[in-house]
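Title: Request for sanity check on Acyl-CoA dehydrogenase prediction

Description:
We are preparing a figure and want to confirm that the structure record we downloaded matches what your pipeline produces today. Could someone re-run it with the sequence below and paste the raw structure tokens into this thread? We only need the token string, no images.
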Amino acid sequence: MNFPVKIMQDGLVTRVARVAEIAAKYADTVDAEARFPREAVDAMKAERLLGIQVPRHLGGESASITEIAELCSMLGQACAASAMVFAMHHIKLSSLVEHGVDSEWHRGFMRRIAAEQLLIASATTEGGIGGNLRNSICAVEVDGDTCRLEKDATVISYGSHADAILITSRAHAQAASSDQVLTAFLKDQYTLEKTHVWNTLGMRGTCS
């Protein structure tokens, strides 16, 4: 398998290979028990892989989406759940990297992700909208420096294992369903309540 030269120079392949070796040891039990691949994710954090997409000047390594896709392929050959978690984390992180560099708060958040190796989850699906992710029923409420949001999220990727969740909603109570915002909530800013159980099938191990 050929990888971009930049990945080879950065040593990302070597680091991901070490994670993949650990992930492979637990892949069968992760799948059979539908449990979170904790060992692999801990290894990702130890190898400083959760912040590689963050720009260098914010403490990351400026890894490209192409490079991350190659790394996902490596992980996927060892443990599908581990690769899925890694991919979903970086999909959400890409929103910050692409749209948050002009905001001091978002720059600070990216610095924290790189420094503390925070795992980012996603809450985009919602009961009552079907599969139309470009619409929301719930709306965020902003009162001074405080915002509140209650969402019937039918699926949250590895929600109980995340350090933060990016959540879609209407921009305000009077907003149209398509007038959406994506809000970042840190783990100490939200509570989760499991409302139903489902057969995760191909999402086994992500504990979504």
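Thanks, this matches our download. The domain at 5-116 is CATH 1.10.540.10 (Butyryl-Coa Dehydrogenase, subunit A; domain 1).
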